[in-house]
Amino acid sequence: MSIDPPSPALRKTRWSDFGAPPGYVGQVGLAGAGGPVAPARGHLRALTGLRFVAAVHVLSYHTTSWSGWSAGAVRNIVGAGYVAVAFFFVLSGFILAYVHAPPEGPGGARERGGEGRQPRGPWTNTRPADFYARRFARIYPAYIFALALIAPTFLWHTFRTVGLAELARQAFPVLLLVQAFIPSAALAWNPPAWSLSAEAFFYLLFPFVAPRLVGLGRKAVVAAFVGVYALSFLAPLSYLWLAPDGSGPATHATYTFWLNVLRYDPIVRLPEFLLGILLGRLYLGAEWPPSVRLRLGSPAGATALSAGVSAL
User: Fold this and answer.
1) Are 176 and 200 in contact (CB under 8 A)?
2) CB contact set of 95 (below 8 Å; sequence gap of 6+)
């Protein structure tokens, strides 16, 4: 007796069906018998090297006494280490779009020249819970481990200096990964962890925002990129114009309420992540000729692309 394969209408598709890092084995693959196979996308090796360079840049900014160095190129470069955090946010959006875009590519079937088919948006019938579970398993255990390493110092010092109530006010947002929304608590417990708090917010939005951005047509995605890039200037220009913290100069050592909002608030930093998604859409777009796609996928091409991202 033969068993007919399930009807396409009955198949369940998931985030993991639409893309995976090379070599990933498990949930990624078929959406039921005969279902769509995740696209074979090469590993952009140059991005790994750039991540290392950016990480060293951030580390140098936080662990050296660069502000006391004599004026020069090295001091200026190390003192701009915060720019590497913006690079990580853009790169995060780019990589997630690159990994999770649907097999047929962004923009729908009509953009790819299909006949008799309506353009579709990606990630139909998705399960955001699967995406959230993978992100949580990837990040939170290491996040908690890092907090545990410095917990004795933080808990004892904070309790001795400001009391139990203030300790709780600072600790609970950190444990919940929402400290970046609270200017006075953004750097509590483990200061660099504010960026993971922002990333957690980006991950929360990704299953709902990315399908719309990746599904844009050619002209719309360019317009969206220009619009989001312009939007990224709204908060800093408003801060300079309104001067909510006073007219004094703002430096790396200035920690005021509104400057902390500008630095750490995930909503303020969201355009950087959205720009990364749009760059992923442009990179994977069907309008690239095969020869151009091949060059962009090479280490040199990926390096040039990533350098352009960091220049934003």
Assistant:
1) no
2) 47, 276, 280
CB-based contact 98:42 (threshold 8 Å): no
Judged against a pLDDT cut of 50, whether residue 76 lies above it is answered with yes
In this structure, are residues 258 and 265 in contact, taking their beta carbons and an 8 Å threshold?
A: no
pLDDT exceeds cutoff 70 at 271? yes
- Residue-level pLDDT at 106: 58
How far is it, in rounded angstroms, from Cα 286 to Cα 289? 8
pTM value surpassing 0.85 = no
Tokens 């350098």 locate to 307
Rg (CA), the chain: 22
CA separation for the pair 312, 305 (Å, rounded): 11
Contact 247, 63 (CB under 8 A): no
Q: What residue has token string 């410095």? A: 150
Q: Which tokens go with 175?
A: 């444990």
Specify burial of residue 311 (Cβ count, 10 A radius: 0-12, 13-18, 19+): exposed
Can you give the pLDDT at residue 218? 85
pLDDT score for 46: 78
